[in-house]
Design a protein that fits this description.
InterPro entries: MeTrfase_TrmA_AS, SAM-dependent_MTases_sf, U5_MeTrfase_fam. With 400 residues, the chain is of the alpha/beta class. It is 31% helix and 26% strand. The longest helix has 16 residues. The structure holds S-adenosylmethionine (SAM). The site of S-adenosylmethionine has 19 residues, from α6 and β11.
């Protein structure tokens, strides 16, 4: 039997075994660890971080989750046709064919139910499904964001055109089935892109965003803004990050790659001032509104590339006592890290969702005189790949 046939048989066996837990297992690429115990998964993730950070710093035990299911507060569905009937689901791993999914072990259950009910409405409202191949059709995706503490629900209908048939009646029908929905937004995405959201939002119902409470602050979260997808673990992650910063109330702190200002606002009550830096203009708008709504007066925000903003601050002779940095999976830039060194903070708290780029950046920061004292992995994405484990690190200036 050739190798290809063997691999195919192994794949089929795995799918059959996993299908007991989830019909899409082995296809959507989400639950890599579905077959083992949660404890084993935590051990492997911790070991993965240890391997990546070998020779850099000691690694503390991983912080796991008590109930590691249905934690995703943001759910995105894609639609397609099978024998003329519309179905909804998730893209197959590394492909754009849709795997049917009605309920997922990781996703918020209310969100999954709303998606199924929207799918049920499409035919009677004559809403067509967008095809990437023909570029014909209206509805590309449905995204649901749900506030874990507030229960608020934002439904985002991602469409190719702002002309949505009988939109008021559609919203009315949806609200009748799901009175818990607090806002509905049309997001127009008419580009040939694999990005889910377009730039234009039209509010059909409610305020156009949700609010959620995290670490005693209330945050406003718009369609496009980054917000951690596992609120239970985020609380633990931010508490650890602020604890590592060891703030006394006298510090000038920077929250780089700040999103809607969540880490900076959590730290603000313990620091003198905080400056948040973020590229996404809508996230900065949310961050400013969040600071105002929570009466946090010692935090300010800059919109722009973190590397460019920090370079400018370094050139102006600015100083910081503590820098929080939480870059995207690709990690930080040398321009940013060069400038951090010029600002001369005592401590850097690095939050990362990619141990590989984290290791690369920690090595670069070591060359700049910042040594990593400790790292703590946090399981933000239970059942998914070890490569996605979150880690929070403390770096200090001076000798190793
Ligand atoms: C992993 S998220 C962290 C956000 C926030 N700290 C949180 O916990 O919610 C990374 C953030 O970096 C922002 N970002 C990406 N590239 C950036 C850049 N070059 N400069 C500044 N911010 C950037 C993204 O828009 C996103 O909000």
């Amino acid at each position: 039997m050739n190798q290809q046939m063997n691999q195919q048989m192994e794949k089929t066996k795995l799918k059959t075994k996993n299908a007991n837990k989830c019909a899409a297992a082995g296809m959507c690429g989400g639950c890599t660890y579905i077959n083992g115990s949660y404890e084993k998964q935590l051990t492997e993730k911790e070991q993965y971080v240890r391997t990546q950070l070998k020779g850099i710093c000691p690694v503390n035990p991983i912080i796991g989750m008590k109930n590691p299911y249905h934690y995703r507060n943001k759910v995105t569905a894609t639609f397609s046709y099978k024998k003329g009937e519309i179905f909804s689901g998730i893209y197959e791993e590394k492909s754009h064919s849709v795997v049917p999914v009605d309920s997922c072990l990781l996703e918020d259950q209310t969100a999954d139910q709303i998606i199924c009910d929207i799918r049920g409405l499409l035919k009677s409202f004559k809403i067509t499904i967008y095809s990437e191949r023909t570029r014909y059709g209206l509805l590309r995706h449905v995204m649901i964001r749900r506030g874990f503490t507030t229960g608020e629900v934002l439904v985002i209908l991602v469409v190719t055109s702002p002309v949505f048939p009988s939109k008021n009646n559609f919203v009315k029908a949806l609200l009748k089935m799901h009175p818990e929905i607090t806002s509905v937004v049309l997001n127009v995405n008419d580009r040939m892109t694999s990005m889910v959201l377009g730039d234009r939002n039209i509010v059909l119902y409610g305020k156009g965003y949700i609010e959620d409470v995290l670490c005693n602050n209330r945050f406003r979260i718009s369609a496009q803004s980054f917000y951690q997808i596992n609120p239970v673990q985020t609380q633990k992650l931010y508490e650890k990050a602020v604890e590592l910063a060891n703030l006394t109330g006298e510090e000038i702190a920077i929250d780089a790659y700040c999103g809607i200002g969540t880490i900076g606002m959590t730290a603000a009550s313990k620091a003198k001032t905080v400056l948040g830096i973020e590229l996404n203009a809508l996230a900065v708008k949310d961050a400013i509104a969040n600071a105002r709504a929570n009466h946090v007066t010692n935090i300010h925000f800059l919109q722009g590339d973190a590397g460019e903003q920090m370079t400018q601050m370094a050139e102006e002779g600015s100083h910081a006592d503590v820098v929080f940095m939480d870059p995207p999976r690709s990690g930080s830039s040398e321009a940013f890290m060069d400038s951090v060194a010029v600002l001369n903070p005592k401590r850097i708290v690095y939050v990362s969702c990619n141990p590989q780029t984290l290791a690369r950046d920690l090595k670069y920061l070591a060359k700049k005189g910042y040594h990593t004292k400790q790292a703590t992995p946090v399981d933000m994405f239970p059942w998914t790949k070890a490569e996605h484990v979150e880690t929070v690190c403390l770096l200090e200036k001076g000798k190793k």
